[in-house]
Amino acid sequence: MAHSTTLALVVLMALSFSAASATTVNKSCITGSAGAAVSIGYGGARASAGAGVSLGADVYRTTCPRAEEIVRAAVGRAVAADPRMAASLLRLHFHDCFVNGCDGSVLLDDKPFFIGEKTAVPNANSLRGFEVIDAIKEELERECPETVSCADLLAIAARDSVVVSGGPSWEVEVGRKDSRTASLQGANINLPAPTSGVATLVQRFRNVGLSAKDMVSLSGAHTIGKARCTSFSARLSGVGVSSGASKDQTFLQSLQQLCTASAGSALAHLDLATPATFDNQYYINLLSGDGLLPSDQALASSSAVAGADQDLVASLVATYAFDASVFFQDFAESMLRMGRLAPSVGTSGEVRRNCRVVNSSS
Description:
mainly alpha; globular; 44% helix; Peroxidase, domain 1; 4 strands; 14 helices; Peroxidase, domain 2
């Protein structure tokens, strides 16, 4: 009876939200199928990413026509060898864009008198895939030296990681420059923690110019990948679940056993049902109480958020659980919006030859 009531509520919320937002969604060139092109009305025009940066889909068509082909093939090989790599490459782009915009700063190594972002709390012993990016960059430099930026490489690789995992495709806007600096402090402050509640998550996204809707749709990236026990230990004590929510005790007990047996070092799938497939199962899991990270499960327990944000977060989770095509549409739109986050006006950049160091140090 409880399951039937919950399902009925999900359907009603999903239908209500879909009807309310139907006039704002442009599906003229979008499909929800794996690898199919997604358009949000971009139509070949150029988009501003701030700091004097002009982005477009055609930037490399004459200067490096095989750029996307090279990235796509390399991502495919990397994910075939290690399925977890798809989530890792997608996460690199996210962690790059949230700190002073999408400028490749997350890739810079620490040097004497220079501290990068890799040792920030959200990144240390967590981010991976740097060697894959290195290998792709080397191939791009052989094909067209000093042409494709590391920031653009991350954006293209993120899209291709989604596609190879069964998710949607979209035209990546390119034309970014690579930064000559990084911000350890920015990484520690801007990136949401896995224990964040909905109010904190919404605010972190708004701080960089993204919306609550972007937060919910981009959280769906957790439909692939893994997390270490230390990232979700608070979940085992019920963090992220409102007092009135029913918890899947079998799920939580299995996590407890996994983490206890490994002394907290084990990895768990963010989505136990379809761990290597980019789909909407993440949201279905949330409605069942099976979100892994406290920040994930909090999306389905958003009573702490007042007013419109509470209604929007709850409605989106229900809608995405009910209709994967709506999730794919919104995810692609949010990825494009995130990809337009740029350094401050007046910040100069370059196209690094080696993504780990600025050119003057290469």
